[in-house]
Specification:
The protein is of the alpha/beta class. It is built from 15 helices and twelve strands.
Amino acid sequence: MKDTTDRPLHPRTRAVHAGTRRSQYGEVSEAMFLTQGFVYETAEAAEARFVEAARDEFIYARYGNPTVAMFEDRIAAIEGTETAFATASGMAAVNGALVSMLRAGDHVVAGRALFGSCLYILDEILPRYGVEVMLVDGTDLAAWEGAIRAGTKAVFFESVSNPALEIVDIEAVAKLAHAVGATVIVDNVFATPTFSRAVEQGADVVVYSTTKHVDGQGRCLGGVICGTEAFVRKVAEPYLKHTGGAMSPFNAWVMLKGLEHMDLRVRAQADAALHLAEALEGHPKLARVLHPFLASHPQGALARRQMDGGGTVLSLDLAGGKAAAFRFLNALRIVTISNNLGDAKSIATHPATTTHQRLPDAQKAQLGITPGLVRLSVGLEDANDLLADLRGALDAA
């Protein structure tokens, strides 16, 4: 599949066709190559492939696989990057993108509002190996400007933070970073590949947990690093293929099938999420309703300028604290309690006691993770059924 010179293909079309490699049998659905290794016609052919393998030549599944390569090419075509490397999980993607490029003595600046496992990498792992990490308020451009300096190697942030849904100005931070030659790495899970324009706004590397919206149906773990050929193939890939962070062929096949209808799913979920946020804002049991496209959101104007949709997640801050939040969660009948997001099923999470429980209370407060905060990932159920479920649970709270 190639773009025509006069009319580039829409991302929804790319999500169905990009990267397809058909075998000699001409199958319609992508083939699943469940093999750990590959054979060679001659010893000379094996030698040549180990010296330099072409994109469609494979050595070992940890290095590359036809099904995985299809997924990588397809998501890169959607994201607008030169290439991608698929990983075993979203955290493998975050870890691979950061650790592969950093050395002792390097300096990293990161937004402080991050998923708990991302904070663990920045707070615990990188400093062990001599990497200096500074955490800043991601919404404060003056803080970024004060922290980024000559010699800063990378900046890292979630474009929409988990779970307080703060928005980082990608274009402004990227300008500051690029002025000193730093690489801009963006965790774009909440923005989704459907609504993201991170690359055109200055991101050099975009990482996703494909466990979320790409699969979107709670089946498989996966992640991906999207970027330039120079970064992905020369920096990230050698680290990942030698340390075992590659995606399995089966999971890649699941992700390929998820991409085919991701755009339809995510748009429906985002419409429902905004509908719920608008309907629940001002409820007497709620101290706050957080959604990037609400007029009350502190970075609402930035969110609308930066994303083509508000995403599938909203957060509800119950006025009664943890006790009220737990009563609310336990009264839900349609929405399930779990710690995932981006699923076809609506999921409620209490970050203070689950995904961010290891953080000290003072740090939780700084990040807006109050005892009453509930993160709600909106699925594909009828929006009015969800609204009735949420209102009933709020009555119980």
